[in-house]
Amino acid sequence: IMEKKRLFIGSFIENNRSDEVWKNSKTGLVFSGDLFQKSLLNGFNNYPHFIDYIINAPSIGSFPLRYKKMYFPISHFEFGSIDGVNCGFMNFTYFKKYDIYLSIKRKALVWAKKNINNERTIILYSLLEPYLKAAIAVKNKYPDTHICCIVLDLPEFFNDSKSLLSGYLSKRGNKRINYLTPNIDSFILLTEHMANALNIQGVKPWILIEGIYLPRSRNSVEKEKKTILYTGKLDRRFGITEMIDAFISIPDKDYRLWICGDGSDRIEVEKAVKQDNRIIYFGVVKQEQVLDMQTKATLLINPRKGDDEYTKYSFPSKTMEYMASGTPTVMYKLQGIPEEYNNYLIIVPDNKKETLKNTLMKWCSKDQMELDQFGEYAKKFILNKKTATIQSGKIVDFLNLIRK
Q1: Are 188 and 146 within 8 A, CB to CB?
Q2: Does residue 79 sit in helix, strand or coil?
Q3: Band of residue 163 on the pLDDT scale cut at 50, 70, 90
Q4: What angle do CA 54, 173, 160 make, to 5 degrees?
Q5: Is the dihedral of CA 84, 85, 91, 96 positive or negative?
Q6: pTM for the full model?
Q7: Alpha helices in 142-208 (DSSP H)
Q8: Most distant CA atoms of the chain, gap in Å
Q9: Under a CB-based contact definition with an 8 Å cutoff, are residues 45 and 9 in contact?
Q10: Judging by DSSP bridges, how do beta strands 71-72 and 53-56 pair with one another?
Q11: Residue 102 burial (CB < 10 Å; 0-12/13-18/19+)?
């Protein structure tokens, strides 16, 4: 009997290596994709033998500017009940992509050959060129291999660098990704709009998984009064400067704005700290501390506005993270977020600075009991409908259905 064998190709920072990666990183790490993959794999662990093997090459900064080591060594690991390998690769800028491709390809071909008489599916995390090329190399050699790709972001919105060289290289990279995408057989999408952008509507099977939440234990901490918290990328595209301006215009001296994260507009944040001593910038903070801060704050804020084209194709992962904290979340209406979320979020009705300021003041002056009730309502929604087990289960059913 043919067995179903599924390979997961990922780019997360595997737990045994996280201290090493943290120690060698010269810039902030992006946690959203990391968290998504680990949550997904945690969910898959509830479906025994669904994933056969994991091949992973972590998304880390390149040597010499962003990482202290020129080579990332190979290591083997277990993720729950699933065996996996962290590929070794040269971590040198630009050369790194090719080496990651070769490393993953070698390991994936060994896996495919071992399972030559089984039904093979590769679940690929994200439209990353070296990873996608490696999966396609396996499909070219073994054409009955099915590739299913999880799309968290469209390639044209990957790059946030302001440099011309970086812009040019990412444009070229996007062209290559678009050329490779037709080789993918099925898709797991974060927003419905992505299906049209990828030209797969009615052409290829896809499923919507707008996000995934892995329940984690939080310490019970004392609430801070009138404290607003932002965690994430410091990038003006995400409304950071407008958020700071709105906060500065609040006259009450008892308010606090806590900011965690790193990004191209960190300088703006550091300027604001000097201008207003109610703003505190914590830099890049470990995940455990972020969870405590989310529980401590009065309100959590995502100042990303909904009128930019890219918001159709993104479901900010911090939305679920924020909601699950039990602290009310303030944000704008984003095109990629399904209607069912609206009842559980504090939606800022328009884009005026004054409106954001008034929304923050209105909610910060509410009774703590009312805030807790609202936060708890949102938390229950996430824990009842969007956990790793539930969302991974949808993917399990989807792949079983299309690969009968």
Answers
A1: no
A2: strand
A3: low
A4: 90
A5: negative
A6: 0.88
A7: 164-180, 193-197
A8: 72
A9: no
A10: unpaired
A11: middle
